[in-house]
Amino acid sequence: KQEVTQIPAALSVPEGENLVLNCSFTDSAIYNLQWFRQDPGKGLTSLLLIQSSQREQTSGRLNASLDKSSGRSTLYIAASQPGDSATYLCAVSYASGGSYIPTFGRGTSLIVHP
Amino acid sequence: DTGVSQNPRHKITKRGQNVTFRCDPISEHNRLYWYRQTLGQGPEFLTYFQNEAQLEKSRLLSDRFSAERPKGSFSTLEIQRTEQGDSAMYLCASSLVRSSGANVLTFGAGSRLTVL
Question: Is B25 on the interface with A (CB under 8 A)?
Answer without folding.
Answer: no
